């Protein structure tokens, strides 16, 4: 492994790509600690030390931003607006025929969809920045803190903060695209990877200080076993054999080959977990906006939401979270893998699944296999996502528990994808790759 990494850095063009990627990551991490203009950095640090640490509704967004959200830095919004915009554009392919046509046009259509994603990202960033600044002014962003996070809340200062946060999102989007074009791996995914991985040392240090070395060692062991399980499932796939009949094109005979369609056990990736977390975040945000700031009793429905749908250690929250992940897994797989389209392409090029006729029988068989393979993948996602919530109950940890949920799924998924890309580039140069 180390010798393969050494060969990667000895190859000039691959070394330049790796160093460029690391340089962009360093720039991104520096921006996380630069406060937005008009924000009191000292008060923010004191508020983070004294505010409630039991999992607020913005914990996932703060995790994806590498801790920048609660510090109100220039990169406070992180990559969440881009992720949300990408998911929305992908879902719109189902309801807007024009988007599906662009998707099928190849590189030119993808360029147009990427442009729409950028515009939507800026719009969502403006909405998110307005919400976050409003919560910071009211004190709801860091519950339990009485210090003013924004000392001067005049209109000019508020607009300056909002514009800065939106501009920060644009810079993050540009940095991610630079990594994709000139570096190694998917740029936005690597920035998410960096944000989540940066929280691991602090989280593990807090666990060791508060719970002792014994529980710390047990949690690390559980984390390693979970990583092994996640790698195993993420690499698992059902291979459906496909044969292509021989046919004449001019004077050449093509076809007659055997290949397969790889159906991953977890075809939906981490998207169902993000969907479920975002949906369960909405009631908590609604309750925060309707919580009186003068200390009076909140409305009964606000109390009910705060009790059952905000606290991650409540059984009702866990049950809803688990069921939503399973539902979203089936939903997302159904819109990203179209058995009718796959069966049509196979029929067009003379391909067939042994034992099934081309056309409708092939489509029904693919749908049958897809429904069966999605169930274990959805259950796996739900179980992994519940690990930090169970840790919240057993160890009194917070919802940013490092080993489990969205964090581990993204860390392992992005790590595997990046290593595969480096491995492919090494093998192109006749070197032994990173993977055996």
Describe this structure in words.
The chain is mainly α and 436 residues long. It has two domains: 33-183, no CATH class; 200-436, Preprotein translocase SecY subunit. Helix content is 69%, strand content 5%. It contains 16 helices and five strands. It has helices spanning 2-10, 12-32, 41-50, 59-64, 68-71, 80-95, 97-104, 107-138, 155-182, 187-235, 271-289, 300-308, 315-336, 339-348, 360-394, 405-428; strands spanning 237-244, 247-249, 252-254, 258-264, 351-352. The strands form two sheets. The protein has a three-stranded antiparallel beta sheet. α8 runs antiparallel to α9, α9 (155-182) crosses α10 (187-235) and α15 (360-394) packs across α16 (405-428). The longest helix is centred in the middle third of the chain and has 49 residues, at 187-235. The protein is globular and about 80 Å long. It is a multi-pass membrane protein. It comes from Rothia terrae. It is found in: Cell membrane; Membrane.
List the helices and strands and how they pair.
Blueprint: H1 2-10, H2 12-32, H3 41-50, H4 59-64, H5 68-71, H6 80-95, H7 97-104, H8 107-138, H9 155-182, H10 187-235, E1 237-244, E2 247-249, E3 252-254, E4 258-264, H11 271-289, H12 300-308, H13 315-336, H14 339-348, E5 351-352, H15 360-394, H16 405-428
Antiparallel strand pairs: 1-4, 1-5, 2-3
Helix pairs in contact: 2-9, 2-10, 6-7, 6-8, 7-8, 8-9, 9-10, 10-16, 11-12, 11-13, 13-15, 14-15, 15-16
Main location: membrane
Transmembrane segments: 18-36, 68-95, 116-135, 155-175, 187-205, 211-233, 254-282, 316-337, 373-395
Family: Belongs to the SecY/SEC61-alpha family.
